[in-house]
Amino acid sequence: MIALKLQLYQNMVNYRKENSFGYIQSYPLPTPSMVRGMAHSLLGLKEYKPLRISIQGDFDSVCTNVQKVIKFDRDPKNRPGNPYKIILGTTLKTATHSIAFVDCLVNCKLLLHIAFDDEELTKKLYEKVLSNTVILGRNEDIARVDFNKTKIVQITQDEEVELKYPIYLDTKITKENQLVGTHYKLPFYYENVSGFDDLRIFKFVDCVYVSKGKIDNLYVDEDNDAVCFLGIS
Asked: Is residue 200 part of a domain?
């Protein structure tokens, strides 16, 4: 099996937790849906292509930013009494604005392994990350790609693996190895929608955020970095 090993650095980033408003919290690592969306966007895919993702990494600290948030109305006619108006170019927009507190991870270092069922897509994604801007998290969260550590790797299984970074592990693996961590039910992808008014029906994966430990019978890459694929069957 091959996978794209992608090493990223982000100096200030927020991986937003769903349903956090006003005070916007962050996951310790990006969710599978964020990584999946990043990969599909780079490839220009308009529909879901099956893939598996391993997510691990670390950060130095967490700080809280105070930001002014402006949300534009999709149609100004829907809120004719809105006093907050902005002209963008020649178009009049109505909007709401508020103050939000945003958690940001400082000096975040990520190690991702991405493997599409179609190996040609995995190889094509490698080409895209070498020549395009990678954004992961919010729209402003640009990532630096460490080219010397980003490559196509072979994935094999090892008898015992020492974790180098905190990682999202499959719940079954944590039980078998008697590891403890923070349990998450993370979004992976949602069914196609035709517009903003359609509900996004997500499919989720159960995993555990584990910071350290030794694991039996886990996948590794050529550099002996742990790989724990999360996916939807």
From this structure: yes
Mind listing the pLDDT tens digit for each residue in 141-182?
Answer: 999 999 999 999 999 998 889 999 999 999 999 999 999 999
Give the domain range for residue 96. 2-227
Question: What is d(CA 41, CA 199) in angstroms, rounded to the nearest whole number?
Answer: 20
Give yes or no for a contact between 137 and 16, defined as CB atoms under 8 angstroms apart: yes
* Torsion 187-167-35-137 (CA) sign: positive
Look at residue 233 and tell me if it is in a domain: no
Cα atoms found within 13 Å of the Cα of residue 148, Cβ hemisphere only: 0
pLDDT number for residue 69: 81
Strand 91-116 and strand 23-24: the pairing is parallel
Closest by CA to 24, choosing from 61, 64, 72, is 64
**Burial (Cβ within 10 Å: 0-12, 13-18, ≥19) of residue 25:** middle
Domain count within the chain: 1
pTM (two decimals): 0.89
pLDDT of residue 96: 76
Q: Which two tokens stand for residue 201?
A: 């029906």
Q: Is residue 232 one of the residues assigned to a domain?
A: no
Nearest of 86, 166, 32, 79 to residue 40 by alpha carbon: 32
Question: For 97-111, how does the pLDDT look when each residue is reduced to its tens digit (9 = 90+)?
Answer: 788 899 999 999 999
Q: What is the pLDDT of residues 14-41, one digit of tens each?
A: 999 988 888 999 999 999 999 999 999 9
Assign residue 201 the CATH number of its domain: 3.30.70.2660
Q: Which of 40, 15, 199, 201 is nearest to 108 (CA)?
A: 15
Instruction: Please say whether the beta carbons of 229 and 50 come within 8 A.
Output: no
